[in-house]
Amino acid sequence: MKQLNLLALDFGEKKIGVALKRSGRQESEPLGNIKSQGDIISKIIHLVKSHHIHIILLGYPLLEHGKKSATTAKVEKFSSQLLPCLPQNVELKMVDEAFTTQQTILRLRALGKNERFIALNKDSYAARLLIERVMDHEGI
Fold it and tell me: Is residue 1 part of a domain?
């Protein structure tokens, strides 16, 4: 298994959930949310540099049978704005985010988290789930 620092982003119109997987650690960690307003790119670049990120995993929302939605187009636009701003050694990967929010809500409820906690944290925990998926399927 490669030793890489991963940053996952669960893109939303109001906020972007953020999670981090540090090299050498088994578990990823939710880092909270970034409001989807203002200079989002600068905030992400700051995270990339401060955590020495190698790969950014960006949740890619597709409908059934791989069809694109209005949100898919927004994520594509966002990725096209983010990519040229990234340091050259940082890779941007689109990751299928199908049902991550629903799975996250179920997991948090199973852990006994209340609805307020879930509402505030579901996006960063969904980003964490993106990391799990990539690690499980690609062995990163």
Answer: no
In a domain, 116, yes or no: yes
Determine the Cα–Cα distance for residues 74 and 108; give it in Å rounded to an integer. Answer: 27
Domain region containing 14: 6-138
Condensed to tens digits (0 to 9), the pLDDT of residues 76-97 reads 999 999 999 999 999 999 999 9
Q: Helix 70-82 and helix 40-50: axis angle, to 10°? A: 60
Q: What's the domain count of the chain?
A: 1
C-alpha–C-alpha distance, residues 39 and 124, integer Å: 19
**Domain presence at residue 32:** yes
The whole-angstrom separation of Cα 136 and Cα 52 is 22
Q: What is the pTM of this model?
A: 0.91
1, 140 contact by CB (below 8 A)? yes
